[in-house]
Every structure is written in structure tokens, then in C-alpha cells.
Amino acid sequence: MIVWLFEFLDATINLHFDRWLGPRDSRVQGWFLLDSYLPTFSLTIMYLITVYLGPRAMRSRAAYNLRGPMMAYNMSVTFLSLYMFYKLCVSAWEGNYNLKCQNMNSGGDGDLKVAQVLWLYYFSKAIELLDTMFFILRKKNHQITFLHVYHHASMPNIWWLVLNWIPAGHTFFGASINCFIHVLMYLYYCLSTIPRAQPYLWWKKYITQAQLIQFALTILHTISAIIWPCGFSIPWLMFLVFYMMSLTAFFLNFYMKTYTAKTKSKRSGKDINASSTRNGGNYEDQKLVRRNV
Questions:
Q1: How much of the chain, in percent, has pLDDT values that exceed 90?
Q2: Could you tell me the CA-to-CA distances from 68 to 74, 168, 193 in Å, in that order?
Q3: Which residues cross the membrane (predicted)?
Q4: How far is residue 182 from each of residues 38, 179, 207, 211, measured CA to CA in Å?
Q5: Which residues have a catalytic role annotated?
Q6: 278-285: long-range contacts at Cβ-Cβ below 8 A with a sequence spacing of 24 or more?
Q7: Coil, strand or helix: which one is 279?
Q8: What gap in Å lies between CA 100 and CA 220, rounded to an integer?
């Protein structure tokens, strides 16, 4: 009964996808996890349930010390991202790709190689859900923000769609630049697990700036294929632009709250202390006096 229900649900979902989005790219038929949407959808639901229940389950437990596993995980994702960046660049070069507009069927063997790396990129987004698991087990719940959950939950689903309908051509750029950013980001995460390296990790905010630049470049690159079309699907390009704009808005909001607000707060604190010193002593000393009067 359960197997029949699963097969019926799978067939129904696939039928609606094919009806709404048209025929899938034949080059990826039979590839692991791509023929059915249910595994990706189920993983996303399990992830969201874990995000909701995980912190509650950890309330009465001590935080885990996961320095070793985190170091191994972050280093592994760093090297995986570096490998994917290299392979995407080489495959795009072999396919004679250009940045203005690249059709899905004009790169010969390069197109298939790009699709193969993009599948690995899609699979890596499932691996990166472990980011949140580490937060939960270490009781770093303040890091499980809406931006974090939205980004991690949406990426496997977005790239399942990309792999099935637009697995080569113009889509290579966003994945390539994201892999490069992830090399920097996960290297930072890896170094942050080493106590001696922590005083030298002053460049965290520049990673967020690099992510914002990444989104801007990807949006401009995608729009270029709309302005100068080459046969790549315009509706898909518009869909990708809107998705990247949503990420840009959330990341920009995070950056403003995390860094701009802190800078203003520090400046305000300095002004208050300077003013209080000029008017008869240290601001903290004056507060203490007032509490004792």
C-alpha cells in the first residue's frame, strides 16, 4: 500500500512538472535523484522539521563539542568546492562558452561535462544541510536565521529544477562563482575551529561582501542573456533573476544588521564616552554613581 502510494504520488508530481515546464533535458535522464522530485522534496521537509524540533530537543542537553568533525567537514567542502570550480571552468572552456549568452546545445561535449559538474553541485547542496545540524548540536540557535534556512532549504530544490530542464549553457556561471565563494567561506569556517588561527580571522565581513558581489554578477550575467538572447529559455532566466534578487535582499539585510549597525553602535559609544569625560568623568562611572544615590 505504501509503495503504491509513493509511486502514485511520484507519477502525479512528475506529470504536473512536465505539464507546467515542458519536456526535460534528455541528457540527464536516469541520473541519480533527478528522475523523481520526491527524494529532494522529502529531504527538504525532513530538514525543516529538524530545524523546528532540533533546538527544542537540545534544550535539556549540553552542547556538543564538534571541533574535530567540523574541521573535517569544512575542509572537505572547501576542497569539493575548489574541485567543482576548476571542473566548471575547464568544461566551459572546452565548450567555448561565452559570458554574454550561452545556449544549452552549442558546446558539444563541454555541455555534458558542465551538466555532470552541476549535478555534483546540486548534490553538494544536500551535503551543506549539515551546516544547520552543527548549529543545532552546538546550541548556536541564533545562527539559524530565516536567511540561513531559506538559503539551505531552497538550493537543492532550485538546482533539481535546473538540472532537469537547463543543465548546461548559461547556468554554469552562477554555480562557478558560488563554488569560488564557498572555497573562501568554508576555509574560513575551517580556520575558525583552530584557536590559534582565530585572531587572524578579521576578514569575515568581506566574505559577506563577496557573496553580495556574487549575486550582483550572477544577476547581471543572467540579464545579459535576456537582452542579447541566444536561444536559452527566457522564462527560466527570469526565474533565476528573481531568485537571486531574493537572496540579495536577504543577504543585504543581514549585512546591514550585522556590520553597519555594529559600526554605528561603536561610534555612538565612543561619542558618549568622549562627551561624558569632557563633562566630569567616565560615563560608566557616572551610571554607577546614579545607581548608588
A1: 77
A2: 10, 37, 8
A3: 36-54, 66-86, 119-137, 149-166, 172-191, 212-228, 234-256
A4: 27, 5, 9, 9
A5: 151
A6: none
A7: coil
A8: 10
The identity of residue 159, as a single letter, is: W
The count of other CB atoms within 10 Å of the CB of residue 152 is: 21
Find the mean pLDDT for residues 140-144: 96
Q: Which residues of 164-185 are buried (b: 16+ CB within 10 A; e: fewer)?
A: bbbbbbbbbbbbbbbbbbbbbb
Lowest mean pLDDT among 90-104, 135-149, 273-287: 273-287
| Residue boundaries of the structural domains of the chain | 18-248
Q: Is 225 exposed, middle or buried (0-12, 13-18, 19+ CB in 10 A)?
A: buried
Predicted structure pTM score = 0.88
Q: Which grid cell sits at 43?
A: 529531504
Could you give the CA distance from residue 2 to residue 101 in angstroms, rounded to a whole number? 46
- Dihedral angle, C-alpha 242, 222, 74, 120, nearest 10 °: 100
User: For position 288, what pLDDT does the model report?
Assistant: 32
Per the CB < 8 A criterion, the answer to whether 184 and 78 are in contact is no
For residue 267, the model assigns a pLDDT of 61
Helix extents (H) in 22-108: 38-57, 67-94
